Every structure is written in structure tokens, then in C-alpha cells.
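Whiteboard transcription, Tuesday session. T.W. wrote the C-alpha cells on the left side:
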């Protein structure tokens, strides 16, 4: 066998085949192929002849919500982002709140564990920094989150205080009569008032909604969002989810369980009139004659949610209340004497606690008397961890709730720093 090459005169000159040279060339080709194939390693000259660097070890990271202030000038935000990037902080979302000569920037960050976030922000020019731990539920983008809050508000008037807290973080929300400010409805203009850490808005049900967040001033953007939700609530008017469930009683018969509001005021008063003085005293811890004065407040969706047990004839025989009390949540029950000891109170309590879990509440508490064995038994029947406090015959039972899979508690994490 021979190889054929072209000579310089264009002719074809046979060349004798050299098996040793051919074997050497094949060996070189095989070595090159193996080198390229092994782990797709780069050629030796790309690393200076040194072995490739190992992959960096995985570092545990933590989600943080952070707010800081920077000067509203070109490059200020870039300097802050650079300082974060130098510490391998991943910016997942960013919202800006213009404030004249400054801008408040709100971040959702993934931060390597052990990072001094406050120092990093200060190095990048951030001021008045505040941060708290976040969780996976904060990963929803801003517009999607606002649409979800608006949908909750549209479904149920009782949701407004909750969605305001979801929107604004840990805050205290109160509904007060306008006369408390000394000048009637005109005390708060239609567009509302923003005063640093306090927002005041006209309550669609009359009076004034006050939102306080002492640890962090509100921005004009947050004020506008809160006002938009309140305006939506006002446009939709009174509303409540419909539907009712039939509850079969152990001793026979049944009642229906449904949501109640101020439209049920007269039926609730009629139930009070059928209750004994002892039942009213155990429930309201005060003069029996004043019991019906509390009903308008208790039935208002602005202060919480109410469940009613009702007979086929339309009589309300039991009420259960879930009341928003600042950062805490109270549960309360009253069952008409003729319907007690039939499991109605326990059923209402169980449903109220389920609502509290869905609303993201961490605890619920009941205020009763040590002699009210029915309420104590109902709380114990929840199967939850309970704390008891007794003072001068008044018993406060607090149940710690397990969070729902899709709910974020109002206390979303610890507040880290504010400088």
C-alpha cells in the first residue's frame, strides 16, 4: 500500500507508507481526544498549566426585606447595588419611593448567611436602613400582590383591615368615630392624611380608619396604595360571602352556620333577651344591661368576623366572634341557654380558629372566667398548645396556631436594624 502526494510540478508521485509514523499520529490524536473529553476541561494553556479551580462551596442564604434611603441623584442606586454585589447579595426585587431630594428603595434580598447587611448598605451610601426577615411568600411580584389584595377586599368587607396589614407590614389599625377628632367628618379630608408614621382615612362605614406603624414612616406610595384599597371598599359597599353549612347536633336536630354582620343586629338582640343573666355575665364580664350595646361593634366586619348558628325558624341561637385586636386576635362565644351543651360553641370556635389561621394569625386568645368550664373545655378541645393566665377571677387562654401552608403571618420575621 502507498500514499499519493502532489509534487510541485502538479504530477502525482507515489510515496511509500510508513506504519510507524502513522501509528504515532494516531496516538497523538487519541491523546488529544481523551484530554478534551475528560470533564470537558479547558486546554492547558487557558489555565496556565494549573488544574481547573474547584466549584465554590454552596453558601446558605437568607431572605430579607430591606428599606433604605439614598440621594436622588445619578449613580446613587448603582453604588448601593454595587456594594451589595461585592458581598454576593442577590437582589430579587426592587421598588422605589421618590421623596424629593431622596428616594426610599425597598428590596427583597437573598443574603449569604453571616453577612453584615447594615454595613454593606452603609458602604453603598444607604441611610435610615431597616430590615426584617422575609419568606418565600414575599417572592410574589408587586402588581400580582396588589391584585390579590384587591380581590380579597372585593370578596369580603371584613378583609380590609387584614389586607392593609398585608400591604403595610406590622401595624396597628383602628376604626374610630370621626367625633373622636373633635370636628366631625371634616376632621379627615376625603383624600386622607399622611403624618409620618400615621395614616388617617375616611372609613366607608363612617368614622376614621387610623393606621399606625411607629417603627417605620409611611411613604407617599404606600399611602396612595392604602387609599386605593379603602376607596375600593367604599365603592363596593356592604358585602359578605354567602352560603351556610348545616350542623347536625348529637342529640338530634340541626342548626345552620353562616357569616353574620350588622344586618343581623335585631336577631342578635332577640337572642340576648332570651339568654339568662348568668350567660350574659360570663360573656361580657360587665353589667348585663349593657350587653346589647356591644352588638353593633361586634357584628361590624371592620372589627372582625362573626359566625351565627341559626334555626330553621330564623332565630339566632349562638354567635362566635373573631376580633382583630391590634397585633392580636380574640375569640368570643355566646350560646343561648336552651342550646348549650350541644356542641354548637365548640363547632363555632373551631371554625373561627380556622379563619384565624387562614388570616395568618399566630395566636388567638379568649377572655373568660375560671368558672366558665364550657369555654375552657372548648379551648382545650382545639388540640392546640395553650397558655393560661389568671388574675382576680379572669382567665385568659391563649392558643398558639400552626401557620397555614399558603398564609404569611403578620409577624413575618424579626426586625433586624434601623439606623
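and on the right, the sequence the group agreed on:
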Amino acid at each position: 500500500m502507498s500514499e499519493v502526494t502532489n509534487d510541485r510540478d502538479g504530477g502525482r508521485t507515489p510515496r511509500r507508507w510508513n506504519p510507524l509514523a502513522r501509528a504515532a499520529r494516531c496516538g497523538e490524536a487519541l491523546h488529544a481526544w481523551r484530554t478534551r473529553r475528560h470533564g470537558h476541561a479547558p486546554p492547558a494553556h487557558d489555565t496556565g498549566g494549573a488544574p481547573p479551580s474547584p466549584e465554590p462551596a454552596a453558601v446558605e442564604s437568607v431572605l430579607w426585606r430591606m428599606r433604605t434611603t439614598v440621594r436622588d441623584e445619578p449613580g446613587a442606586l448603582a453604588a448601593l447595588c454595587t456594594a451589595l454585589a461585592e458581598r454576593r447579595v442577590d437582589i430579587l426585587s426592587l421598588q422605589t419611593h421618590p421623596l424629593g431630594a431622596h428616594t426610599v428603595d425597598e428590596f427583597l434580598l437573598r443574603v449569604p448567611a453571616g453577612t453584615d447587611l447594615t454595613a454593606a448598605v452603609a458602604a453603598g451610601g444607604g441611610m435610615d436602613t431597616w430590615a426584617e426577615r422575609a419568606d418565600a411568600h414575599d417572592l410574589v411580584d408587586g402588581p400580582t400582590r396588589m391584585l390579590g389584595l384587591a380581590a380579597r377586599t372585593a370578596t369580603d368587607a371584613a378583609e380590609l383591615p387584614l389586607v392593609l396589614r398585608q400591604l403595610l407590614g406590622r401595624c396597628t389599625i383602628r376604626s374610630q368615630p370621626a367625633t373622636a377628632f373633635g370636628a366631625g367628618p371634616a376632621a379627615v379630608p376625603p383624600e386622607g392624611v399622611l403624618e409620618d408614621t400615621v395614616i388617617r382615612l375616611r372609613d366607608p362605614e363612617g368614622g376614621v380608619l387610623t393606621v399606625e406603624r411607629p417603627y417605620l414612616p409611611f411613604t407617599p406610595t404606600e399611602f396612595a396604595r392604602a387609599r386605593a384599597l379603602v376607596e375600593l371598599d367604599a365603592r363596593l359597599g356592604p358585602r359578605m360571602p354567602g352560603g351556610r353549612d348545616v350542623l347536625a347536633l348529637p342529640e338530634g336536630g340541626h342548626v345552620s352556620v353562616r357569616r353574620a354582620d350588622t344586618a343581623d343586629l335585631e336577631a342578635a338582640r332577640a337572642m340576648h333577651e332570651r339568654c339568662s343573666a348568668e350567660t350574659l355575665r360570663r360573656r361580657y364580664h360587665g353589667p348585663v344591661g349593657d350587653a346589647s350595646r356591644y352588638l353593633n361593634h361586634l357584628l361590624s366586619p371592620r372589627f372582625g368576623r362573626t359566625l351565627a348558628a341559626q334555626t330553621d325558624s330564623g332565630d339566632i341561637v349562638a354567635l362566635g366572634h373573631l376580633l382583630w385586636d391590634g397585633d392580636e386576635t380574640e375569640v368570643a362565644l355566646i350560646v343561648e341557654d336552651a342550646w348549650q351543651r350541644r356542641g354548637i360553641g365548640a363547632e363555632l370556635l373551631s371554625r373561627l380558629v380556622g379563619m384565624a389561621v387562614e388570616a395568618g394569625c399566630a395566636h388567638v386568645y379568649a377572655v373568660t372566667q375560671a368558672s366558665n368550664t364550657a369555654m375552657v373545655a372548648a379551648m382545650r378541645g382545639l388540640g392546640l398548645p395553650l397558655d393560661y393566665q389568671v388574675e382576680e377571677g379572669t382567665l385568659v387562654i391563649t392558643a398558639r396556631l400552626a401557620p397555614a401552608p399558603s398564609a404569611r403571618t403578620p409577624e413575618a420575621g424579626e426586625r433586624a436594624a434601623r439606623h
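Someone added at the bottom: The first helix runs from residue 19 to 37.
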